[in-house]
Every structure is written in structure tokens, then in C-alpha cells.
């Protein structure tokens, strides 16, 4: 345990009686009470997560937009300051190194958020790809904590805690946008983003201020049903929302077309890393008429398929593999995602998953499995 990395909030989790797990080399809270209770809190009121193991890589310079357009497959130059974009970092062969969110802080400044397990890989790749551009790239992860507040009551909770003159900033913040607010005298980068399928926010601030903010949020959110949540329910929430997880749905052996991610900006001018390979894959119909594609799978019962289980057609022929699977607390039946041959990707197609030697019937569906009721935000 002494070799595991700890976040600035580890003492807060211990004080709350959290059970911990090794998550990619990090000592992270798995749950505080039960993952079912925490899952339902996010769907009904609000949940709070420590995501400080995620990475933060700053990119600053007059060439920042052009550089990121060569390093990532999306068009980062098109987003305005105050906005964010989901994109991918790919290999020259088109494989997915990581999926990440990039915030445009200013005209010449971006903040790139890689997954925890890929932080060093992403920082190194961006540094290597920055050669020849007038930019600075540095990994700020060691100094920044990240807290997420997710659920229907999240906006109300944060509106009650910011300064009176900042309430409209919270209420009017659009999805995949960010602003700066003050809570308890601490300036915070507030983004309306998340990984649960609910309305929610992610709050970035220095490590040494994280504990005070965590405690303030718990106290201020108590009347709204705010519940501390661990990684166990985060996984079931993202699966219901049909959101891919790096290492499961996304790997260097898969291309964006196979994952069903329409985020490759072929229309931009820059010759981004992986462009030729991805154009060739598109021309060959990868994920549409050839190869495999990621699909959702739903069962009538609660018996779950798990990562690595073989997907079969009704004759028992292997046609793919499950990448994620679990019983859905919200829907009451098992759900999964997996890659299957394109001939079996039509929604409504019945397939079998070999679960410990027994074929379990699943129906192909298009994620997400769960959609929240929106109110225009």
C-alpha cells in the first residue's frame, strides 16, 4: 500500500470510512457505504467524487491551437475560450492512446485532461509532438486536485455556495463549458462536464486547498442529499451512460471508427498524427461495412457479462468480445458494451454471451442505455 499514490483528499476519505482499492497505482476510495446507494444518489440527488488522480497538462503559446490540431484528431482551434472539447490522442497507425477533454482557457492557452493511467504517456507524447511549434507543454498534475459534483441537484448545490454575483455563472454555464468561481475564498476552475450521464460539474483547484473545499461541499450539499461516492458506482454510472473507458472500450489496438466515435476532424487543414491511417480506415468502411464496431448489449435478466467474455452468434460462433458489463441499478437488468463483427451491429439483433460456459441472451442496442431528463442545459 505504501507504494500507491495518494491524492490530497486521502485523509478525508479515511475519515469518512471509505474502503479503498488500487486503481492504476492510486490508493482510491472504492465506496463509502454501498455502491448501490451511491449510484442511486447520483441519479436522484447528487454525488461527489475525488478525481484528483486524473492528469492536467497545460499548453501555452502562440501556436497552441495549431499544435493541438496536429497532436489530436479533433479541431481544437474551432472552440472558443471558455469551452471544452472531447477528443482523442492517436498513434500514427490510428490506434487510440487516450481519450481526453481539452479546455480552451484563452486564445493561446489550453488545459488537456488525460486519464490517470495515461497521464505520463500523454504528457510525453504532447511534449514530443510540440517540436517545431512556439508552445510550452508541462504536466501540472502534481499540483492540481479535481472534485466532481454530479447529479440533478448539482447546479443547485454549487449555486448555493458561490458568491452572490457568481450564481448566474453557475446557472447559465452550458455543457462542455467552463468558468471561474469562488467558494470559501478559493478561486476554482468550474467546468460543466462529467462521466455519469447526469448534469454535473468538475472543480479544479490547488492540492493544498482541496481538503477545505471537500469539507465545504459536504456541509453545503448536505441539505440537498449530496453523497460522497467511490469508483465502484462511477463505473456503473458511466456504463449506463454508454461512455467508453480507456483500457476497456478504447485501446491502441482500436481506431475511432471501430469505437463509433465521430470525433476525427478530417476537414481541418493540419496533418494530424494518424490522419493517413484513419482516412484509409474510413475509405475501407472500418466499423461500417468491415471489421468490428462497439455496440451496447442489454439482457432481459440480471446475470451480467463481464470484460473478456466471448460474444457469439446464435450458432455459437465467436463474433466479438465484451469490454464492460454489469447489472444496471437504474434499469434493473444487465447491460454491457463490446466489439462485434459489423454484420451483427443492427439494433435488435439477438446474440449470446458465454458467461462461465453458459450462453446468455443479449440484444444489440445503441448506447446510452440511460438518458437523464434534461431541462435545457
TrEMBL record:
Pfam families associated with the record: GCV_T, GCV_T_C
SUPFAM superfamilies the UniProt entry points to: Aminomethyltransferase beta-barrel domain, Folate-binding domain
The keyword Cell division is annotated on this UniProt entry: no
Domain GCVT N-terminal: 10-263
Gene Ontology biological-process annotations: glycine decarboxylation via glycine cleavage system; methylation
Keyword Methyltransferase carried by entry: yes
Name of the protein: Aminomethyltransferase
Species assigned in the record: Nesterenkonia natronophila
Gene: gcvT
